[in-house]
Amino acid sequence: MLTLFFERYAAVFLNVQAEDLSLIYDFPMSFYTESGDVIRLDLDTFTTHSQKVIGLYESIGVKHVTFDFDPAMTISEVFTLVSVCWHFNDADNNEIYSATTRYMMKLKSGKLKIKAVFGVDETSKYKEVLALKA
Hints:
Elements: H1 2-14, H2 18-21, E1 25-32, E2 38-41, H3 43-59, E3 64-69, E4 73-74, E5 79-89, E6 95-108, E7 111-119, H4 122-133
Parallel strand pairs: 1-7
Antiparallel strand pairs: 1-2, 3-5, 4-5, 5-6, 6-7
């Protein structure tokens, strides 16, 4: 179930469908940054934020995304914590960078939704790529 969920998630990002991404989340949701800030997102701010993130991926040439994840940790009957290592690749499938993000998944009406995102190292990895391109 998790593999299919994240395959769909990656496909939506690659196809630049910020509106479809909103269907994967349970709003309001929270994003915890690497630096410890907490950003609360409703649907509108999430869509705007996602469009910016998609633009960042495009700016460094991301064309393919794969992932693997550690075994999920059950928190309760409805919450599961998942740690995903994303691999961002160019058109020739060469890795641009890999980064880890953790997701608090919520089972809602029999479907998985993302309730919270914990940025582990993607911002710093992205900045490293930008520094190398400068």
